[in-house]
Amino acid sequence: MKALGELKNIQIIILGLCIVFATIVSTVILSKGLLKIKKFTGEVIQVTGSAEKKIISDYIVWDAEFSRRASDLKTAYTKLQEDLKKVKEYLASKGVKEDELEILQVNTKTLYKKNEKGHDTNEIEGYLLSQGIEIKSYDVRKIDKVSRSSTELINQDIQFISEAPQYFYTKLAQLKVEMLAKATENAKQRAISMAKSTGNKIGAIRSARMGVFQITPPTSTDVSWYGENDTSSLEKKVMAVVSATFAIEE
Questions:
Q1: HEC string of 12-64?
Q2: Within this chain, do residues 51 and 13 fall inside the same structural domain, yes or no?
Q3: Smaller CB count within 10 Å for the chain: N or C?
């Protein structure tokens, strides 16, 4: 019985030693794992990359308006329709196609006589009718040229007012992908340069976040956090910014 009790005690001691050993091994493994996780999440470098490209607009929208004033509504409308015919003939002579031209509705304004204080009275003095046109085209150069020469219509006794054209780029989705890739590559090169100075290397990219994407006139230096989308210039400058994080390897 004594021998049996001693055997049980020895077994308990051995079991206790195994548990202690297993605990020590588990702690070491867990510690190494935590160190690896800490290293993975802590040793990184965050940089900002950018890319620029000059583009030429491939779509144009041009608005203009002409008007007529007369003492009675019928006369004003008749003259306005005569002007519309002249405007359409002029545009056709400049190569503007029918499917590029949209004739907008006629706007009518009643004009009242003024009193000695300059205020409107209830007496009608006449009517002012105006009509707009809008031209949309992929032939940017052609419409741009027409918009600049359209004041020639004034020589035909037409009260013609031309607005500044709006210039657009229709392949923005494709361009964004290209520019963001270039901006990310620029960020990587900056990270490599920074890490090299400390004797380290750049590893895999951990994260990337798109920053400012803006379209400005070629000579503009404006930068805004919400981005710019210029429509006033035929030629444009596109800039993309990316914030990226890279792993650091020793």
A1: HHHHHHHHHHHHHHHHHHHHHHHHHHHHHHHCEEEEEEEEEEEEECCEEEEEE
A2: no
A3: N
